[in-house]
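User: As part of a screening pipeline, I want to sanity-check one entry by hand. Below is the sequence and the SMILES for magnesium ion. Please return the complex as structure tokens so I can compare it with the automated output.
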Amino acid sequence: MKIKKVTLTNFRNYASESVDFCDGFNLVSGPNGQGKTNLAEAICFASLAKSPRTHHDEELVRDGSNEASVSIEIEKDFGKQTVSYSLGENKQFFVNGNKISKLSELFGTLVTVYFSPNEMSIVSGSPEDRRDFMDTDISELSGNYYNLVQRYNKVLFQRNKLLKNTYDHKAILDQIDIWDEQLASVAAPIIRTRKNFIAKLLSPSQNAMHFLSKETEKLDIEYLGAEGNSTAEIKANILSGLKASLNKDMELGYTTIGPHRDDIKILLNGKDSKIYASQGQKRSIVLAIKVGELELFEKELGEKPVFVLDDVFSELDTGRQKKLYECAKDYQVIMTGTTFKFKPQTEFKQIKVKNGTAK
Ligand SMILES: Nc1ncnc2c1ncn2[C@@H]1O[C@H](COP(=O)(O)OP(=O)(O)OP(=O)(O)O)[C@@H](O)[C@H]1O
Ligand SMILES: [Mg+2]
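Assistant: Here is the complex for your manual check:
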């Protein structure tokens, strides 16, 4: 899919602007603080229903305005679509002008793979950052997965409420089995889907790592959570895990095992990259994962996603910049940077951003 046009109204520092994109490389440049990241953010918001840099949607509304709105025209293999949203008093999304009632209906309309320096948290951040990475990206592929995670969080909340508010252990023991059964029933397909996602992501990411970095650098990703391959096996392991940790959970007042506590381990040459990889290697790992996602998303959706790269070149040497161009050349790319030292060999467009305008 390709983004043809983005129209922003009162979004961050954009009062009213329309930006046309080419199908190849879109090089969005300009000095610091002019609105490059804001433009990338507006695009990502349409695909993920959340900002990659803040949980506070009100920050996206232009100072002094009540409402921000963004409209994005997309061209897919089968035809044109429009995704739009408004933020402020109401947060609403529209696909082809029709208001959508559940976010799961939005996912898959505009699919992006997003990189910004913040995405380094996939390697360097907390387990929560890595769970968020998996959940966000799998939701883009499956609205059903997003619904499962919402359902899991609700059941988890109920189980924790029982653990927290009931001082009578017998009362907990009387009710806990019902919650354990429900929790495990939703946890198992979540973990199964995440393991599947990691397994499918691994090979294209390894290939990209091989290409982007020294050929000796081997990437591995392991899911750290309940054992098992089938949903039934995982469910049985979750159930026994919940039983085994019940005393601890009662003491702490919350649930200590399950997909909300799982993590992934990213290894470089067999060693935990969070601890051992250099800054440059970490950056290459995250980029390799993103390039791996391009291929995975394309395979799963039957359409190419749009590659959005915010400030990607700030720390990459020219050799790696060229290699990244090479990896991305079959996709529509929207990349931001203060300047671009060399121009792509394929179709490209320069977009200059200055104080909330993009020309
Ligand atoms: N809600 C808002 N209303 C008005 N202006 C805003 C709002 N939120 C952010 N800004 C402004 O947007 C500008 C930052 O834009 P952005 O982050 O896109 O910069 P950038 O071009 O990516 O810069 P850099 O090269 O430093 O990354 C700042 O001047 C900031 O004050
Ligand atoms: Mg920026």
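Points to compare against the pipeline: Residues 126-302 form a domain with the Glutathione S-transferase Yfyf (Class Pi); Chain A, domain 2 fold (CATH 1.20.1050.90). The mean pLDDT is 94.
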